TrEMBL record:
Transmembrane feature ranges: 183-207, 254-274
Domain of life: Bacteria
Key word Membrane present: yes
Key words, A-Z: Membrane, Transmembrane, Transmembrane helix
InterPro entries on file: DUF8094
Name of the protein in question: DUF8094 domain-containing protein
Domain DUF8094: 303-593
Amino acid sequence: MRFVLAIVAFVIAAGMIVLGIAQRTIFLEPASVSLSTSVEDARFAVVESSALNAVPGSQTITVSGSDTIFLAYGRTDDVKAWLGDEPYVDIRKAKDAVALSSKLVEPVAEAESAAEADPADAPETVTNPAGSDLWLQEFTAETTLTTTLKVPDGISLIVASDGTAAAPTEVSLSWPTDNSTPWAGPLIVGGAAVGLIGLIIYLLALLHLRRSRGPRRNLPRGPRMPQLPRVPRPKSIKASQINGSGKSVTRSMVAVPVILVSGLVLSGCSADFWPAASTPEAAVSATPTPTGTEAPAQDVPPPAVTVPQLERIVTGIATLTVDADANLNAEALATRFTGPALEKRLANYKIRGVDPAIAALPPLPTSPLRLTLPQQSSTWPRVVMTVLQDEADTATAPTALVLRQESPRADYLVEYMIQLEAAATVPKVAPATIGAPIIAPDSTFLLLSPDQVAAAYADVLQLGEASPSFGLFEAEGDSFRTQVTELKNSRKEGLPTTASIEFGAAAGTGPTVALATNDSGSIVAVSLTETETVKPVDAGATVSPEGASKALSGITATAKGITSTYGDQLLFHVPAAGSNEKIVLLGFSQGLISSSELP
């Protein structure tokens, strides 16, 4: 009976082990699923979201077929907006299809009708997608590019070479699949255990059999049988003549199962052999899901940028600004600055070119963004406001930037660069993943329309308490107003009796930017111009500009007089209409932008 049990155990063990091994060999599913397609006769290709998410999990993209390969991903609408009227190969996967499809899209008719309607709307000359501010992330390589991403719905890839040469011809997508076999480990180890039990039963059966052949009791003698002839005795056979090794057969039989069991147990140590093992998804090193790309509420446009996207943009601008400031490179600066911010910095370059002793303007901080408020927009132009604080110099006030992107292929340009007041409290705003709507310049839902803020504040600077707008603005904490008053008094006191001085203030030419806050108010960025006119009052008298005014005007002395213009960049919080609060100045920046002789 023991031998029967041992044989049954050996059969069960062999079946379990074979089944466990088969799950990891002949029955094992592929570790990934791949789809591929070709790109022909186009400079650009777009891998749609339907293709990227055809299979759940992270996406490994392999692109080849050109000397230079460029790959970037962004919102699908942004990718299509950048392409505009460019022909491109559309790569997608239909719901019931088993393969990727590629189709050449040529929006030529739309391009021609748009150009006829308005020549200004014709496609821009920028053709290389590398470095565009629209991309959430981009990659470049030579010959072959492979990267692993994890992007959600609503994100597409753009594939190109350099925007001029043909796009890479081969695009392949693959996704990791769960090919773990949670029962392989239990089957193999369980089979080994059952086999071990069978071996023990077999050894016990052998032991029992040997003991059963011991001395027996004496039986009664029967009649004596005649003696038979003796049979020749066979020669003894040595153990080495049976297996040729000289080793005991019994030991070999025991050693083989032990080695087999040990090997099988060790082979089942992989996590894929056991239930509740980690899925391939968790093991793949993939690019984090782009933040801020979640679909906003219905009928609400998405935010213009994500925080990582804006950090990359601001870092690039800061690096360029440092180099441009050091080399007084106005041409390079103009690629990233515009409006009042550009005007102020260009004037500083001109001044420092004449008088190097005059200090440069503060650099742009490169630290992480403290606040990001993008405009909710799926069209152009787009606006975003952000606040930066230099972590290495916390004594310096934070810097607020207002950036504008005029079109899909244009870069974001710094339009306003403003230092916040030391005691300024920025009102609560929507998170960066939602963004804020732009407020119309003539909106009547605020205490004062955004397009009237600059003129009203200029009037306060000019007339003080006599201004009709004086009561609309909070005086406490407004250090700029105090600074302007002190500067005027200082200029008057230092003026010789042979000259007179006049001051003026008016709304500047910079665009008004207003983004909504959570309290139904708005953060408003505006520009002002302040003028200072010095004239001689006596016949034959002259006036002599000094410092930056002298360097900018190039005049040593004049009998006509001189006018110096200062550009002011101001940031306000304008409360909602009917509020008991006043308009608060959050920050300011001032600099000399021109100086010239009177006609």
